[in-house]
Structures are given as C-alpha cells and as structure tokens.
Amino acid sequence: MVGLSDQGQEAGISRDQSRIRPISTRKADFEIGGISREQGQEDLFHRSQEQQKIGSIREYQRPKSNENREIGNPHDQRLYESLQRHLELVRNAIERAKRNKSKTDRADRSLERSESSIESAERGIEQSKSTIKQSEQQITRAEQRIDEKMKVKQAEIKADRGFYR
Question: Which backbone phi and psi does 5 adopt, to 5 degrees?
Fold first, then answer.
C-alpha cells in the first residue's frame, strides 16, 4: 500500500487531484432531465448571481471569527489573504476619512467662531470710529465756542481800552 502512494508521488501525481478533477456533464445529461443546455446555463447563471448577492451580504455581516478559517487550495488562500489585506486597507481608509471629517468639522467650527469674533471686532471698530468722529465734532464745536468767546472778550478789552484812552 505504501509502495503505491510513493509511486504516485514520484510520478508527480498529488493525492489531492481527485478533489480538483472537474465533473464532466454532457448534453445528454441535461436533455434527460428535461432541461436544455441553454436553459440550464441561464438558470445556473441567475442562481449564481443571486448567490453572489447573498454571499456578499453574508461576507459583509460575517463575524471576524470566521476570517481565520482554513482554505484548501493555495491559490484560493492567496486570494483570500489578498482580499483580507484589501479589506483592511478599505477599513483603514474609512477610519482615516472619519477622523479627517471630524478634524474638518472641528476646523469649520473654529473658523466660524473666528469669523464671528472678527465680525464682532469689526463692529466694535466701527462703533469706536463713530464715537471718535462724534468726539472730534464736539471738540470742534467747543473750540469754535471758545474762539467766539475769545473774540467777544478781545472786543470787550479793545472797547475798554478805547474807552479809557
């Protein structure tokens, strides 16, 4: 018995070949069942599409405990690992986008507060300008009154001097 399995391995035949061997179907097999080849292919195609939709939903909802399951074919294993890496990259990108959005939202709120503060400061500056202008007008009127009083006083003094001369 050992001799037979060794001969098969020496000839380059794997024990797993029986699992990989395709199942041959003939047109007669479909016709016997009452289904034409085209109908069978269409049905199979539609079922495959539905299973892919269902499978993608299940894959999305699958808990992480199933991620470590063993996959038989090395090609399937590499594909699975590649998909897992891509999935992790997508998750990381989503997390990064969420963090960036959060930072952007905070920056937007900060900008809005800054803009509000700037607007408030501008209103204060305009009020100050208005107050300064009013003060300047009051000072100008006060200077004019003082000038008028001085002219009146000087006229009185001249009149008094002229009266005494």
Answer: -70, -35
